Amino acid sequence: MNYVEWLRVRNALRIYAIVLGVLIVIALIVRVSLSSQLNHDQYLIDRVSKEPGTKISHSVVDGLNRTTIVSPSDSTTITIDEKPDGGRIIHIVEPSKSHKPSTHAAHVGSFRANTTVSNGIETITVDTDGPVNVVIFLFIASFAGLILATCLGAPFACEQGHLEIAMLKPVTRIRYALGVIGADFAGIALAGAMTIVAAVICQAMFEVPHFDFSEVAGPLTLLLIVLPFSWYAALCAATASMQRGAGAVVGFAWPIAFVTIGLSHIPLGGTVVGQTFHVIFRAVASIIPLSYMQVRMMGSTATSDNGLTFSLNAAIITGLMLIYGALAIAQWRRVEA
Amino acid sequence: MSTISIKNLRKTYGPYVAVDDLSFEIPEACVFGLLGPNGAGKTTTFKCMLDLARATSGSVLYDGAPLVPETFERIAYVPERSVLYEWMTVAEHVEMQRRAYRGFSVPRAHELLAQFGIDLRKKARALSKGMRTATMVALAIARESDILIFDEPTSGLDPINQRHVLNLIINESARGATVIFSSHQIGQVERAAERIAVIDRGRLALEGAVDDLKADRKIVEAILPSENFALNGLVGDPRILRLDRTGRIVRALTLHDASDVLAKFEALGASGLRIVDLNLEDIFLYAVSPADATADVVEGR
Question: What is B215-294's CATH topology?
C-alpha cells in the first residue's frame, strides 16, 4: 500500500549507501597511506633505532612478547607489550621538557594515551585497542538518522500532485499515513544501522574493534534512537498540508533550529524587548527536538548539557514525536485534492 | 456492478460555488458522459464523488451506501492531468497498482501499455503528455473495476489513441462496468455514452439518455421567402426552444413535435423544409447557453 514511500526510502538509502561507500574508500586510502605509522611498535623501533647506541631486546613475559627499546642518547626507554587480542600496551619513559607535575589523558577511538609528568620524567602509557564506548557509534548513527529524517521529512507534501493516487487506496487515510511514517521510520533506522556498520568497518581498518557496551542500556541510548524520529515527525507536521514550499521548509529547518536554540541560550539584555524575545526563543526552542540533544563528552563519558537528565530529555523528545506525528496525520486526513 | 446516486451535491470554496445542488443517478453498466464548459464543475463533481474534496452538503451513494475506503477496490479514477510520479518508471507504477488493489491484473496492464506503445522502463517524466494519459488509462482499466471514472481521458492523445481509449471505455461497459467520463470532445461522448448530464456553472442543466435527448430534439430548417419575412406565431411557441436566422435561412430547435412546427413553416410559405436530427453538440450548446443561443433571433418577436 505504501510502495511509493518504500521506493523513496530505497532511493534515499541508495544515495546514502554510496556516500558511506565513498567514506569507506577514503578511510581505506588513508589506512594504506599510513600503514607504516600504524604499525606502532615497528614505527617506534624505526624512529628510535636511528639514535646512536639504541638497544632493542625481545623477551617473553607471562607468555606474551615484550620489546624493550633503550636509547641512552635521549634517555628514553620504550616497552611494547603485545596483548592477547593483537593490541599493544606501550610505555614510554623519557625526560620531560616541563618540570611541572601533570596528568593528561587522550582518547581517540580505541586508542588511549595517559601522560604523567613527575620529577622531570614523562611517562606515556598507550593502549592501542582499549574498549570503545558503543554510545559513540550511536551518536554517529543518530546524526545519520537525522540527515535521512530530513531527506524524508515531507512525505505528505510529496504526495501533493499525486493525491488522486495516494488517497484512492482502499485503506483509511490514517492507515495510509501510518504506513508512510512506518516506511520512513524503517529507512531512518536502516540508515543508522548502515552507519554503525560503516563506522565499525572504518575502525577495523585501523585497529581491532573492542567495544564497551556498559552504557548502551542507558537513557542516552534511548535519546539518540528517538531523536531522528522526533525530528522527522516535526518536519512531517510542518509540511503535511503544504501544497508547495515544503522543500524550503525542510531545507531551512536545520539553520532555523540551530539559530533558535542558540538564541534561546543568549540573554538578550535587560530590556523588556530583549527579555520578551528571549522568552519567545526559549518557548520555540522547547518544541524543537534538537534542543534536547545537548551532550557534553567528558573523555568517553557523556553528560547532558541542558540541565535535564537524559531520561527526561528522552521522555520529552518521545512526547514531541508522538504529538508531531499525530499533528501530521490530522492534517493529512483533512487534505483535499 | 454498481449504481451511483448523487443527491443535492454542493461544494463551495469560500464564496465560490463550484457545484450547486447537483442530483442525478448513474445506472449500473452504463457509459455516462458528464459534459460542461470549462469551470462548470465536472472535475469538482468527480472529486466529491471520490471524497478527494469534501462535499459542503449532499451525498454520493454507491449502491445505496456511502463511500468507504473499501469501495476504492471497485473504483478506478483517471484525473484530467497526469498524477504519475515523475521519478518512477512505468513498471514501478504497475507494481504500485498491483500492491494496492486486489483486482489489478499485471498481464492486462502490460498488454494495454504495449497497445499504447509505452515502454515499461521509462520514467514518467520521460513520457509525453499523451503517453502519460494513456498510462493512467491503462492502469485504470487493468484494475477491472466495477466503476471507472475518467476526467478527459483522451486529453493529449493522438486521434488513433483517442479512438483506442474510446473503444476501451466501450469494452469496459460491455464487460459490465459503469463508466463515467467527461470530455470536451462531444463527438466522443456521443459515440460512447448512453446517458449524459450537462453541468453549467455548477448546476445540472440537462440529464438523460442520449437517444431520448436526440429523439426529443430536432431542428426544423426552412428557407423563407425574403430576408425580412416575419415569423409570426413561431417565436414564443413552447415547442420551439431556439430560433436562429441567417438571411433567409431559419433553423428552429424543437422539443417533441417537429412535424407540427414544420407544418407551421410550410403554412407561412417557407420552402426547402426539412427536419434535421440534432447532434449532441447542438443539445449541449443549447443546454449551457440558451440565452446566448436565442439572442440572434430578430423580427417576429
Answer: Alpha-Beta Plaits (3.30.70)
